[in-house]
Amino acid sequence: MKRRRERPRLEPAPREPVARPPEAVLQAAVPRPLWAHPALWVALATVALYLPGLRHGFVWDDQRLIATNPLLRSGPGLARLLLGDFWLTSGLEASGFWRPLVTLSYALDGLVGRWSPEWFHAMNLLAHAAAAALVTLLALQDRVPRSASLAGGLLFATLPAHVESVAWISGRTDVYCAAFFLLALLLDRRARARGARGPGLGAPLALALALLAKETAVCFAGLAALALWSDARATPRSWRARARWLAPYAAVTVLYLLAHAWMARAAPLPARIDPLLRERGTWAAWTMFPGYLAFLWPGFPHSPAVTLRLPDSPWSPAVLGGAAAQAAFVAALAVLAWRRARAALPLALFWLTLLPPTVVMFAQSHLLFAERFLFLPSAGLAWAAALGLGAVGRGRATRIAAGALTALLVGWGALVTLRLLPAWASDETLFQAMTVVQPRNAMGHVQWARVLAARGREREAAAELDAAAALDPTRPEVHSVRALIHYRHGDWARVLEEAERALALDSLLLEPRLARATALLRLGRVATAQAALERLWVEAPGDPAVGSLLGQALARQRRPAEAVPLLEDAARRAPGDPDLQFALGMAAGALGRLPAARAAFEAAVRADSGFYDAWLRLALACALLRDTEARDRALARAAACPEARDGRAADLRRRLATAHP
Predict the structure, then answer these.
(1) Please, what sign has the CA dihedral across residues 58, 60, 64, 68?
(2) 3-state secondary structure of 198
(3) Rounded to whole angstroms, how far apart are CA atoms 378 and 132?
(4) For residue 272, what pLDDT band results from cuts at 50, 70 and 90?
(5) What is the CATH number of domain 439-523?
(6) CA distances from 141 to 192, 264, 291, 382, 463 (A)
(7) Which residues does 33 contact at the CB level (< 8 Å), separation at least 6?
(8) What is the pTM of this model?
(9) CB-count exposure of residue 26 (10 Å: 0-12, 13-18, 19+)
(10) CA-to-CA distance for 579 and 568, rounded, in angstroms?
(11) Segments making up each domain of the chain, as ranges
(12) What gap in Å lies between CA 65 and CA 72, rounded to an integer?
């Protein structure tokens, strides 16, 4: 029997186990509508949180930079601002800052919003919402799950330390810089992920805009180099290719630094500052790092102009502890970078963007320490938090605990932010809050005293100034505000005394220099005042306050033809200054320009209805112009002033009745 030959059976080969893609990849593979994107929800939550701040006004530095800045409102003036120091209009000394993008944004906001503070606040809010959305996008780009990316964006959006940057229009420098910086980083990593040979135009352009908003962005090239190293799979292998990738960022940064050095001189220190104070400022630089970490805690006593305590010794616990904390952080960052860990880049974003103010303190002892400096660095920590949440294990209890902790921090931060916002509504609420939250902050007491003095509450203002002097006897602003109080009463000898005390502590301050010149004029020391004002005019040509006083000095020396152009130019820039309008009226009257003199005196009494001398001069001008009805009205207003007790109003009435019945 023939044996059947069995065919070999073909068994299927064993299947290779298929690796399950991570959750972020599965989520990315599923198309989702735009309204479900976490970045959109983060932006909307940010807008909703800060919406009450749109009703606020101009506060603190907003007044000098925007509200009363005449250079923003003219083409030539704006050109001077864009090509000069950021604080050009506020004083004489160089600040060392050049931020043309922010200056241009102020001018554009003024044109669009008709100089209403609501529009300026709205632009700050939208920029903050964009920065929070970019934090979310960076986390998503790093393959972080959508829920964890959403949490990271919300942590950034609700951080109470950001209130100073967002609710304060002058804090825009940090918000705009951060938004463009994060956009540049996002575009850089996106170009590398798609295999491009270079970063293209978008990322270098965004970097340029970030630099033109604030100097903090100078560290971007270093961060981009770390991103090249960390992204091993998408990074060019050769050193030549890496250098070619980084070349546009290096070129933009170098060009910016050259332009910055040309446009803005380095900020000088006060000529008579205590050398020990400079040294203590250098020691304090080591304490800044733990201070910034403390700002991240929602329960921190958040306040503008946070006081940085100066250590008494380089070996104090605060200095040694700060140096140790920073060294430990840098060491951990170096290990993460060497291992190409994903957390290295966001943590480097935090540390590198904190370096510029620290370096300035080491180099020049300028006390640059505030919550607004944390705005961009905190984006790195929020991104790192999203990475940490995305890496939480699969255990149900662990995930619930992490989610609950995140929700607690987000909710707590939002509540504290809502509590802090009302303080930024006005100068009065802001400076009063500073004295409550930081009773040992001398600057808070000084600024609150300034507001009280303007409200006529001089006894309370004096008490606040005494408190500030007790906290910091070297604070020149104490004497400057005291000079302003005496100015209101026309006590020119005391004005001169306090102004000179302020200048002995800081010879570069504008306010006491102007107060001193005014006192010298009113005391009849016209030649001394004119010499000081001519020096100021060389340092700050076109400044309306300096031009006004110089014009008044020339008018006092019977040089009205030279005084009138200066006074007219200053009056166009600062039309609400009654003293300026009075001086213009006097100079125009000396030249026989009676209609112009009358108009100037009328402007003076509109600005200050209790201006006794302006009412008298207005009555005289109206009499010379044969307007008896206006003359009598002006005389009646002069007679109603408390100063009419000197008899000049009654004497002028008798003389005019005789000469012009």
Answers:
(1) positive
(2) coil
(3) 11
(4) low
(5) 1.25.40.10
(6) 12, 38, 31, 14, 56
(7) none
(8) 0.83
(9) exposed
(10) 13
(11) 41-264+340-360+371-420, 439-523, 530-606, 609-661
(12) 9
